[in-house]
Amino acid sequence: MNKTKRTGSFLATVAVSLALMATPLAAHHSFTAEYDASKLVTMKGTVIRLDWANPHARIYMSVTDEHGATANWAFEMGSPNVLARHGWNRNSLKPGDVITVTGYLAKDGSNMANARAVTMADGTKAFAGSSSPDAPQ
Amino acid sequence: MKTSVCFAWAASLLFAAAVLAQSDKGTITGSVKDPIGGAMAGVAVTATNVSTGAVIRATTSAQGVYSIADVLAGNYDIAAARPGVAAFSMKNVAVAAGKATRFDIELKEGTQLSSLGEDSLSVAEDQRRHHPPSGPTPHTDDGHPDFTGLWWSPRVIDPGKPQFLPAAAEVSRKRIEDNRKDSPQAHCLPSALTRIGPIYEIIQSKLFLGLVSDDDSPGFRQFFIDGRSHPKDPDPQWYGHSIGHWEGDTLVVDRVNFDERVWLDQDAHPHSDKLHVVERWHRPDLGHLESEVTVEDPGILAKPYTIKRVSDLAVGEELREFVCAEDNLDVEHLVGK
Asked: Which of A12, B10, B87, B256 is the most buried (most CB within 10 A)?
């Protein structure tokens, strides 16, 4: 074994403000380039399909508005990699599921939004059980 | 949920009022909500006494309620922070003696994408999954520290103090003003060269180290440690060309020869053909991997700067593939200024 010189570790200084110095998020693209933070919407609709693909999984959903007109919408989520860490998989939503999605509308006027929160058919919020900081580990 | 939040807050307020009667101290209490109105649990709230500088901390409950008791009457700066949303601060909040002051906080979205899976709750959940083991630094058969393992994206301990030259600062300003819509990463090209994604894996051999990321494209780097030099007249590369050597138990990696299109950092700074990056990797124990990244580039910087960061060993996690181009539907919807 080689003789190794132990260099100073700055690990001891790590304890300060971990939450504030956290890792930047895994954003594939800038939020502000695609979505409008001033246009928060909530839609209830029927799942057409869940596309489990990179760089973002998407929920395609049929939504009927208050005038009875039906349109298809796409809701963008994180990548399958991050969603899988929180317990989702390609079968987490099935065609015909009635869900409610809250998110921000696309800036370009497309029938798109990001999925900021999803309430499942049974009334539970997606990830609510696993990602609450106070949830049991 | 609303009813329970109101009840919890009302109960804390009544309790505080009873305790504070005839007291020279007060209480600050309130709720913290996320940008879409939901109660936020586990948020760190601090109150800093403007006169004395004393800092008092509290954390929101499962119902998103916090209470900071026994604070001397006076003015306080209130701050709240949670990864994934913009930091909140309000100066000079008056706290009266013998009273409970209600101060509700509504956090705003940050600049990053906050879709499900990348939102504040998900970030917090990822952080709760950090359980770096204790133990000695493992070594390879030839006696060097072994960095092999799956690692969480590093926390920045010290971001350094980069002093960008005016032209570089202007490029960054314009790119950010344009919503970073031309970010290489958004087009499934490599992300900023000082960035490492949520999880990365290091595979170490006697000849090289490989670094594989779970959210970059193509997402792998090589550090050659077989004694070779940088090639003469090489083709530019997005991740640069990296050679390393051991200085004691630290691997010093020399990184040059970058493609001009890669962005330097997440603040969208450019680089010049003079860019030279030196990385010092060090595993102080089983569960941690430190890296110091020194950026030298007289074409964009007044002087070099160094970023210090540390990763936790990602025990129980798995590196999944990330084929960015398979469904990158975003590009046509990206809007600039």
From this structure: B256
Residue B217 phi, psi (nearest 5): -135, 115
A78 and B CB contact within 8 Å: yes
Q: What is the DSSP string of B96-146?
A: -TTSEEE--EE--B-SS---TTSSHHHHHHHHHT--PPPSPPPB-TTSSB-
Question: How many angstroms separate the CA atoms of B220 and B291, rounded?
Answer: 17
Number of structural domains, chain A?
Answer: 1
- Residues 6 or more apart whose Cβ sits within 8 Å of residue A82: A26, B117, B118, B122, B126, B198
The verdict on residue A93 lying in a domain is: yes
Provide block-wise average pLDDT over 10 residues at a time, chain B (337 residues).
Answer: 55 56 82 88 92 93 92 94 84 92 89 72 82 97 97 95 98 94 94 92 96 94 96 94 97 97 95 98 98 98 98 96 93 89
Q: Domain span at residue A78?
A: 31-127
Q: Taking CB atoms and an 8 Å limit, are A22 and B155 in contact across chains?
A: yes
In a domain, A11, yes or no: no
Which two structure tokens, joined as six digits, stand for B153? Answer: 């994206």
Residue A1 included in any domain: no
Contact A55 B113 (CB under 8 A): no
pTM here is: 0.82
If you count residue pairs, one on A and one on B, with CB atoms under 8 Å apart, how many are there?
240
Whole-number average pLDDT of chain A = 79
Asked, for residue A22, whether it belongs to a domain, the answer is: no
CATH code (residue A89):
2.40.50.140
